[in-house]
Amino acid sequence: MQSDQKTELLMLRDRLRAFADERDWNQFHTPKNLAMALMVEAAELLEHFQWLTPDQSCSLSAKNMAEVEEELADVLLYLVRIADKLGVDLNEAALRKIEKNALKYPANIVRGSAKKYNEY
Fold it and tell me: What's the CA dihedral at 41, 74, 38, 81 to 10 degrees?
């Protein structure tokens, strides 16, 4: 499964490269600009949940779910693009981060707790 996910991320990266190349957008796709665009899209995602209760946020209408899916896609696309520009292998970086978090948050200590690692 891991190699399938990596292959899918690489295919997505390549599609984004071609998309930007066809439009001569690489001149605008600096890490700074892409990071800013990523945050704008993350904020647009957040808008869909801003005034919902926790229960409401778990049961979106079909229309709202479709809008959330688009915002999630935007976030993913900018994330893949900035990682490509910086030469970051997202799959490997994510796996390393999970391992790091496992050390920071040992399951036997933090199970069921929302405390930050420096609070236990």
Answer: -170
| Tens digit of pLDDT at every position of the chain (120 positions) | 466 767 999 999 999 999 999 999 999 999 999 999 999 999 999 999 999 999 999 999 999 999 999 999 999 999 999 999 999 999 999 999 999 999 999 999 999 998 888 888
**Residue 112: inside a domain, yes or no?**
no
Q: What is the 3-state secondary structure (H, E, C) of 45-90?
A: HHHCCCCCCHHHHCCCCHHHHHHHHHHHHHHHHHHHHHHHHHCCCH
Total number of domains in the chain: 1
Residue at 114 is within a domain: no
